[in-house]
Amino acid sequence: MSNLRHTLSQFSGSEQYTRWSPMFQMVASEGVTYLAERAGAYWLLDLIASHVAFGKASGEDFLSVNVSIADSKGKAVIDDGNGNVLASQDIPYTDLEEGEYKFFVEHGVIMLPQER
Questions:
Q1: Which of 47, 49, 70, 81 has the greatest count of CB atoms below 10 A from its CB?
Q2: For the chain, what is the radius of gyration of the CA atoms?
Protein backbone atom coordinates (compact mmCIF):
# COMPACT_ATOMS: atom_id res chain seq x y z
CA MET A 1 0.00 0.00 0.00
CA SER A 2 1.33 3.41 -0.90
CA ASN A 3 2.14 6.02 1.70
CA LEU A 4 -0.80 8.23 0.63
CA ARG A 5 -3.36 5.41 0.71
CA HIS A 6 -1.90 4.13 3.99
CA THR A 7 -2.33 7.58 5.55
CA LEU A 8 -5.88 7.82 4.18
CA SER A 9 -6.71 4.48 5.81
CA GLN A 10 -5.88 6.03 9.21
CA PHE A 11 -8.75 8.53 9.08
CA SER A 12 -11.90 7.53 10.95
CA GLY A 13 -14.80 9.81 11.69
CA SER A 14 -14.47 13.52 11.16
CA GLU A 15 -14.84 16.48 13.48
CA GLN A 16 -13.99 19.20 10.98
CA TYR A 17 -15.42 19.73 7.51
CA THR A 18 -14.11 21.94 4.73
CA ARG A 19 -16.18 23.85 2.19
CA TRP A 20 -13.91 24.30 -0.80
CA SER A 21 -16.11 26.04 -3.36
CA PRO A 22 -18.97 28.50 -2.91
CA MET A 23 -20.62 27.09 -6.05
CA PHE A 24 -21.28 23.74 -4.40
CA GLN A 25 -23.20 23.41 -1.18
CA MET A 26 -21.04 20.50 -0.12
CA VAL A 27 -18.28 19.88 2.38
CA ALA A 28 -15.36 17.46 2.56
CA SER A 29 -14.35 15.39 5.57
CA GLU A 30 -10.88 15.60 7.10
CA GLY A 31 -9.63 12.58 5.12
CA VAL A 32 -10.94 13.86 1.81
CA THR A 33 -9.50 17.32 2.52
CA TYR A 34 -6.14 15.69 3.30
CA LEU A 35 -6.23 13.85 -0.06
CA ALA A 36 -7.12 17.03 -1.97
CA GLU A 37 -4.36 19.05 -0.29
CA ARG A 38 -1.65 16.38 -0.32
CA ALA A 39 -2.24 15.17 -3.88
CA GLY A 40 -3.40 18.43 -5.43
CA ALA A 41 -6.71 16.75 -6.17
CA TYR A 42 -9.26 19.51 -5.59
CA TRP A 43 -10.36 18.71 -9.15
CA LEU A 44 -11.64 15.40 -7.80
CA LEU A 45 -13.90 17.18 -5.30
CA ASP A 46 -15.21 19.37 -8.12
CA LEU A 47 -15.83 16.32 -10.30
CA ILE A 48 -17.85 14.60 -7.59
CA ALA A 49 -19.73 17.76 -6.59
CA SER A 50 -20.65 18.64 -10.16
CA HIS A 51 -22.33 15.27 -10.66
CA VAL A 52 -24.09 15.56 -7.31
CA ALA A 53 -25.24 19.13 -7.90
CA PHE A 54 -26.10 19.04 -11.60
CA GLY A 55 -26.21 15.46 -12.86
CA LYS A 56 -28.28 12.33 -12.48
CA ALA A 57 -26.85 11.87 -9.00
CA SER A 58 -28.53 15.04 -7.72
CA GLY A 59 -31.22 14.55 -5.13
CA GLU A 60 -29.75 11.28 -3.84
CA ASP A 61 -29.21 11.06 -0.08
CA PHE A 62 -26.37 8.55 -0.41
CA LEU A 63 -23.85 7.90 -3.19
CA SER A 64 -20.81 5.72 -3.64
CA VAL A 65 -17.97 7.06 -5.80
CA ASN A 66 -15.24 4.79 -7.13
CA VAL A 67 -12.21 6.30 -8.81
CA SER A 68 -9.65 4.13 -10.61
CA ILE A 69 -6.32 5.62 -11.67
CA ALA A 70 -3.81 3.86 -13.96
CA ASP A 71 -1.23 5.10 -16.46
CA SER A 72 -1.99 8.77 -15.67
CA LYS A 73 -5.65 8.27 -16.65
CA GLY A 74 -8.69 7.53 -14.61
CA LYS A 75 -12.36 6.80 -14.42
CA ALA A 76 -14.90 7.91 -11.84
CA VAL A 77 -18.11 5.93 -11.37
CA ILE A 78 -20.93 7.19 -9.17
CA ASP A 79 -23.67 4.83 -8.04
CA ASP A 80 -26.52 4.85 -5.56
CA GLY A 81 -24.78 2.48 -3.17
CA ASN A 82 -26.68 -0.50 -4.57
CA GLY A 83 -24.65 -0.80 -7.77
CA ASN A 84 -27.01 1.27 -9.91
CA VAL A 85 -24.65 3.53 -11.89
CA LEU A 86 -25.88 7.12 -12.05
CA ALA A 87 -22.85 8.70 -13.71
CA SER A 88 -19.36 7.95 -14.94
CA GLN A 89 -16.60 10.16 -16.22
CA ASP A 90 -13.28 9.48 -17.89
CA ILE A 91 -10.30 11.39 -16.55
CA PRO A 92 -7.96 11.95 -19.52
CA TYR A 93 -4.93 12.91 -17.41
CA THR A 94 -4.03 13.02 -13.74
CA ASP A 95 -0.93 12.84 -11.60
CA LEU A 96 -2.93 11.37 -8.72
CA GLU A 97 -1.21 8.24 -7.47
CA GLU A 98 -2.32 5.05 -9.21
CA GLY A 99 -4.85 2.88 -7.47
CA GLU A 100 -8.45 2.65 -6.39
CA TYR A 101 -10.11 5.36 -4.34
CA LYS A 102 -13.57 5.11 -2.80
CA PHE A 103 -15.73 7.86 -1.38
CA PHE A 104 -19.22 8.18 0.01
CA VAL A 105 -21.42 11.23 -0.36
CA GLU A 106 -24.09 11.54 2.28
CA HIS A 107 -26.29 14.61 2.75
CA GLY A 108 -23.74 16.91 1.09
CA VAL A 109 -20.63 15.49 2.81
CA ILE A 110 -17.90 13.81 0.74
CA MET A 111 -16.08 11.33 2.97
CA LEU A 112 -13.85 8.29 2.97
CA PRO A 113 -15.78 5.07 3.71
CA GLN A 114 -14.21 4.68 7.16
CA GLU A 115 -15.22 8.23 8.09
CA ARG A 116 -18.91 7.40 7.79
A1: 49
A2: 13
φ, ψ dihedrals at 78, nearest 5°: -115, 125
Domain CATH number, residue 59: 3.10.450.150
Straight-line distance from the first to the last Cα atom of the chain, in angstroms, rounded to the nearest whole number: 22
- 72: alpha, beta or left? (left if phi > 0; alpha if psi -120 to 50): left
In one-letter notation, the amino acid at residue 116 is R
Q: Note down the domain range covering 66.
A: 3-115
Instruction: Categorize the per-residue pLDDT at 2 as very low, low, confident or very high, splitting at 50, 70 and 90.
Output: confident
Question: Given strand 99-106, what is the order of strands in its sheet?
Answer: 27-28, 109-111, 99-106, 62-70, 73-79, 85-91
Position 57 scores a pLDDT of 80
